[in-house]
Amino acid sequence: MSINTDNEQIADVSGLGVLGIVAAVLALMFFYRFSESGFIPILDHANLAFHEAGHPIFGMFGWTMGLLGGTLGQLVFPIAVTVTFLRKGALVPAALGLIWLFQNFLNVARYIADARAQDLPLVGNGDRLHDWNTLLMQWHALSSDTSIARAVTVIAWMGMMATFLWVTIVWLRTRE
Q1: Domain extent listing, the chain
Q2: What is the three-class DSSP state of 157?
Q3: What is the model's pLDDT at position 37?
Q4: What is the pLDDT of residues 8-50, one digit of tens each?
């Protein structure tokens, strides 16, 4: 049985699919809780590649967009994955794309929080600008770096939890 959500067909969500979403969120919580740096190597190296690719892609639209491009790059790719799966009616893979998107918000928050301290290692030969230090200075908000980072962290976890709830609600409706 499929359910109709906003005139789009969403395929059945199995209990195993819901369990997969729960496992993904719990794994992220575990890794972030017990990782000193909050870095999950296999996932975050991929995120870093998308971040770095975003700089020249968005940089075509100006200097500020080039700085924002790293963050935008690491958000655009999970959004594209999510939209692709939603268009196919594949809810669980789309939900995993959303979890990947919100996991990236945790990385962005860590980078924003580092804007003043600049302790995180940057990719490159040492002459790179710290994106968020430069952006927040430009916007006269550098002293708010950790507050902004906390808000982005809350958005990240709320997004992951909302994704889980969405999949669970769809699963429960398909069982009726």
Answers
A1: 3-174
A2: helix
A3: 74
A4: 455 567 777 778 888 888 887 788 777 777 778 788 889 999 9
Distances (CA, A) of 107 to 3, 28, 85, 104, 133: 35, 12, 23, 5, 15
Q: Which two tokens stand for residue 13?
A: 């969500």
Q: What is the mean pLDDT of the chain?
A: 87
Pick the closest to residue 42 from 31, 52, 30, 53 (CA basis): 31
Contact criterion met (CB below 8 Å) for 98 and 82: yes
pLDDT bin (cut points 50, 70, 90) of residue 127 is: low
Q: Are 99 and 28 in contact (CB under 8 A)?
A: yes
Q: Which residue has the tokens 């669970």?
A: 168
Round to whole Å and give the CA distance between 3 and 13: 10
Give the Cα separation of 168 and 95 in Å (integer): 11
